[in-house]
Specification:
Radius of gyration: 23 Å
Structural class: mainly alpha
Number of strands: 2
Distance between the termini: 52 Å
Number of helices: 3
Strand order of the largest sheet: 1-2
Oligomer: single chain
Helix content: 55-70%
Order of helices and strands: HHEEH
Largest sheet: 2 strands, antiparallel
Shape: elongated
């Protein structure tokens, strides 16, 4: 398990601690709850960033067009979906 030392705005820290303390699943602030909540938040952030990167890469590919059957037959995204 890794250790990270970070600095956050006081208001963000207060709000985060308050939410962690109020959650029913934690039933107050006990040892390990803050770390578990921060781990969950970090995992969600990482997953969102990965999904955004994947979506951006797919959009770039779709903007290049789609080659079908023959290298000279090229359709762009708006042609496939009848937009534009």
């Amino acid at each position: 398990m890794g250790t990270i030392t970070i600095s956050v705005k006081n208001e963000v820290e207060k709000d985060f601690r308050k939410v962690v303390e109020e959650l029913n699943e934690f039933r107050g602030m006990k040892k390990g709850h803050l770390g578990a909540a921060i781990t969950e938040a970090m995992q969600k952030w990482v997953e969102e960033k990965k999904q955004r990167r994947i979506a951006d890469e797919q959009m770039k590919l779709s903007e290049k067009g789609l080659y079908l059957l023959h290298k000279n037959w090229r359709l762009k995204r708006n042609e496939i979906y009848g937009r534009g």
